[in-house]
């Protein structure tokens, strides 16, 4: 598919009888070319983000990967963040094993932690304006997490005393996570064992 920059160059070349190299730095055509180039770069970044989606807990590497655009960044793939969230949630219950209903409640809280920011960005956008890269990315992230929950949301097993104790003792290291039992919990309330997601989730 032709890029915005290619289309803009073609349009300007047609208007200027094939000449697009001798543009004044601040001319309208020069600004249009610059704007088209910036848009293409933004779309390429979003396309890369969409291809990785969230995986949602799976990672490209053990190190959190960040998608950056200007002065902001958002973790797309960071299983440590997820484990930290559920460790803190378990601590709220005095590190006692959780029942299925409570686990599902925490999963929903995790999925929708970005809703407020997403809604704020959506409301702040002027009518007719395209969504910002951040808004698009939050939308992708929320949708990816929701889809994972429908199929089976991967979390450390919090439903037995032994496993709850293992998670309580987690000190933040990557290697320790392989010793914690993992499960998938679906929105329909089904649970099944899962392997440590070292290679991502299908």
Helices and strands in order:
Blueprint: H1 4-15, H2 28-52, E1 65-69, E2 72-77, H3 79-92, H4 100-111, H5 115-124, H6 133-151, E3 153-156, H7 161-168, E4 182-185, E5 191-194
Antiparallel strand pairs: 1-2, 3-4, 4-5
Helix pairs in contact: 1-2, 2-6, 5-6
How does this model look, in words?
This protein has helices at residues 4-15, 28-52, 79-92, 100-111, 115-124, 133-151, 161-168, and strands at residues 65-69, 72-77, 153-156, 182-185, 191-194. The protein is mainly α. The chain has 2 domains: 1-52, no CATH class; 55-194, de novo design (two linked rop proteins) (Up-down Bundle). The strands form 2 sheets. Strands 3-4-5 form a 3-stranded antiparallel β-sheet. The protein is elongated, with a radius of gyration of 23 Å. This is Translation machinery-associated protein 16. It comes from Pochonia chlamydosporia 170.
Number of domains: 2
Tertiary shape: elongated
Which class do the helix and strand fractions yield? mainly alpha
Note the beta-strand portion.
Answer: 5-15%
CATH architecture verdict of the largest domain: Up-down Bundle
Features:
202 residues; mainly alpha; de novo design (two linked rop proteins); 3-stranded antiparallel β-sheet; two-stranded antiparallel sheet; 7 helices; Tma16_sf; Translation machinery-associated protein 16; Tma16
Structure in a nutshell:
The protein is mainly alpha-helical and 202 residues long.
